[in-house]
Design brief:
The chain is 65% helix and 6% strand. It is mainly α and 141 residues long. It has a two-stranded antiparallel sheet. Strand 1 and strand 2 form a beta hairpin. The longest helix has 24 residues. It is globular, with a radius of gyration of 17 Å. It starts with 9 loop residues before the first strand and ends with a helix.
């Protein structure tokens, strides 16, 4: 497979609940379309913050964010193995940082999962910095 880590084969589920092997590009397209459908559905992603914090659909949101995290992994893999313009690299890094902060704030990503552990030290350092900044803000308030 062309995935990340090297050799990964991606699967999506058909309408008949059958697993279908797909390329990394197809996985990205399917995942982003699937995530968009859920985000636009207020049962999966309530528009009101208080509803988001108190609904059982939070588990659905966690699954969405795990799949989006996997998309970031694929994009990082391609970015590191194929030439891209500097602004593309910077934009991807910046968006990933925002994504991780959002996930940390809302508790939307299992940082002990095998997927997240693939980024090892990078995620650990990011989490430490986030926790230090959070503590400083709490001390000032």
């Amino acid at each position: 497979g062309e995935g990340f880590p090297t050799g990964t084969i991606y699967h999506i589920w058909s309408h008949e609940n059958e697993s279908i092997k797909v390329s990394a590009t197809e996985y990205i397209q399917f995942t982003l379309g699937w995530a968009q459908d859920h985000i636009l559905n207020e049962r999966s992603m309530p528009a009101v913050e208080s509803q988001f914090l108190n609904t059982y659909e939070r588990d659905v949101v966690k699954v969405i964010f795990l799949h989006v995290f996997r998309v970031f992994l694929i994009l990082f893999y391609f970015q590191s193995n194929y030439p891209v313009k500097k602004f593309v690299h910077e934009a991807l890094d910046s968006e990933f940082d925002r994504f991780i902060v959002f996930c940390m704030y809302w508790g939307l990503l299992d940082f002990e999962s095998e997927d997240v552990k693939l980024l090892g030290d990078y995620i650990d350092q990011f989490r430490q910095g986030y926790e230090q900044a959070r503590q400083l803000l709490l001390e000032k308030s």
